[in-house]
Amino acid sequence: MTESQNSDAGQERIEPFAHSPEEVRARHESNRRGWNEGAAAGYTPEIENTIRFIREGQSNLHPVERTYLAEILPHCDLAIHLQCASGKDTLSLLNEGVKRVVGIDISDVHIENARRTSAALNLPATWIRCDVLDAPHELDDSADLIYTGRGALCWLHDLDAWARVIFRLLKPGGYASIFDDHPITWLFDPQVSTLQYSGYDYFHSCVSEVGWPDTYIGDIGIPVDQQSRKYECLWPISRVFQALTKAGLVVVHLGEHPDPFWEQFPHLPEEIRRKIPNTFSMLARKPRSEVPG
Ligand SMILES: C[S@@+](CC[C@H](N)C(=O)[O-])C[C@H]1O[C@@H](n2cnc3c(N)ncnc32)[C@H](O)[C@@H]1O
């Protein structure tokens, strides 16, 4: 279940998976416009708050991420954050012991926010506005850590290409960390106070819609039918595993957690919500001696 499925705005369509690279790009480009609208309207206009937060040495990492990243972070020269939004989590990595960060995001507005924040603090951060699939080759073999998740995977429409990017950006021996919505959450209706089947197919679900949920970004001041259409996919955990291993990475950790990172089921009593996996975590490693493709 994704943020925008939990939408009062509706206007949702079930979509087939993208069948060609052109279709993947068209969906990502539509998502870029959608995220620019969402970001401009207030998803992260809190630049001043983020500056204060980072200056105080705080970190926005999720407690679950800390459990499996704590020993890795202090040894990272460079972490690349894929789908970094306005960079609060990216800059938090510096407060966790990482020496330099690169944030990559498709949204012009988010990357501009991130630039302003790190410039104000004079931090060792570089920001790149591009589709994650176009991460620049100058960064190949450079990252000790690829960090991503918390609402990232659902926006992507070619998971194999994504995994290949992770592989090429990592140094041999480097890690990729993914902590994201558990795909099974798509199967439950977010609008009700019981666990009720949503109608989605765990194995084949892609949706598109306009509008943002009230619990997330809400009203952005643009009539819903004039907003850019956003495209999302449910990626089963096995697909994430297969994409990473096919790209040459070795999955060294998989976790399923009752802990959410956003209010996905606002009406569900806590004691029921904690009985389903809200999130999953995965850590994959690039072998020290590369195994060809
Ligand atoms: C829910 S936000 C993730 C936020 C992130 N966990 C954080 O707070 O730092 C999803 C982000 O993915 C970005 N995004 C979506 N599709 C992308 C793509 N194809 N390439 C790069 N970024 C993308 C959006 O612009 C948005 O900032």
From TrEMBL:
Domain Methyltransferase: 82-174
Region called Disordered, residue ranges: 1-41
Keywords per UniProt: Methyltransferase, Transferase
GO MF term list: methyltransferase activity
Compositional bias per record (Basic and acidic residues), positions renumbered to this chain: 10-35
Keyword Methyltransferase assigned: yes
Gene Ontology biological process: methylation
InterPro entries in alphabetical order: Methyltransf_25, SAM-dependent_MTases_sf
Name of this chain's protein: Class I SAM-dependent methyltransferase
Native organism: Anaerolinea thermolimosa
